[in-house]
Amino acid sequence: MEKINRRKFLGLSALAGAGALVAPQTAMASVKGETAMVEKQKMAIRTLGKTGLKMPILSMGVMRADNPAVVRAAYNSGITFFDTANGYQKGRNEEMLGEFFKDKDRKSFTIATKVHANLSSNNFETEYEEQMNISLRRLQMDYVDVFYTHAVENVGILSDPRLIKMLKKFKKEGKIKHIGFSTHANKPAQIDEAIKTGIYEVCLISYNFKLGILPDLDAAIQRGVDAGMGFVAMKTMVGGVEDAEGKKQVDGAACLRWVWQNPNIATAIPGFTSFDLLDNCLEAAYRPEIDEADKKYLAGLIDKNELLYCQNCEQCVDQCTKNLPIPTIMRAYMYNYGYKHASLSKETLASLALNGNDCAGCTGCTVNCSSGFKVAEKIAAITPIVNVPSYFLS
Hints:
Distance between the termini: 42 Å
Helix content: 25-40%
Shape: globular
Structural class: alpha/beta
Strand order of the largest sheet: 5-6-7-8-9-10-11-12
Strand content: 15-25%
Radius of gyration: 21 Å
Number of domains: 3
Order of helices and strands: HEEEEEHEHEHEHHEHEHEHEHHHHHH
Number of helices: 15
């Protein structure tokens, strides 16, 4: 097969975005006015644990995407698994996917969505089921393939009898095919707790080359795989491909190749929002083997760059004299400055009920972040966003 260079591939992506793929195995690409037939490349396929779902190693995190043409390009290039959530873009994300997939063969794609489990509510069961049903209506689907309890932090949530009752109910009714959970924090403990419950089939987990707990995490993932659990990787690009100043920080292709070294990761869901970023991810998927240049490049980032990814080690919480939920605040910072998704940043902070002046009165920040974050500066830079009217935010 002729290797597709970047210029040819951009031409192919543009046509895919316009729905112009002409055959399952071939596509027409225009290069400098010339027409060439380019064989459609294929991605490696892995199985998602005991679900039996087979999917390409590259999937799409749709959270930030608001252009259905990018979704179309991803779908036409062979991506079949699309990840969204009830709260993304205040529901518009699910609505966009519903409109795009409403006339597609249901067997040609796999959908995952997520709902937060507000177990502190006296009406938890009613509210959780209502959000589940809202997601299905937005998606215009009778069921989702994977349903995640969203952003679990406390281990006890996974084994809460009320949550387990509702998840089993959804599955029995056919609204969800497979039960999962997503988590950024306490990951080895969360995985072990999920194994004990015996109902969780999929785990969406932050996983990247910067993690400081990789030996423990990889061992926990192996225990999960041995128990039949499937693993999906998020946050693979350590907080976005740009820093707060908009300068490129990370080669996403190298990051993905690093993730795919672990055969226990079934697929990754980078959140590409443009054809260029999709091309970069596909470049990795078509040549997924990590090489020495990738390893050297990533090693340099570990040694020299802070990047925007908070590892959720939670050591900062005990160091902070005001016990602020710093990992979540840092995630909000990443959403705004790395992902350029200000509305999600505001939504994340709003759930914390901060007063907007939480560092006031401190003579100096007592937090020594293991990732090198200047915590006080980041808090000061992001917390004011809660007071910005939503219609000004992206």
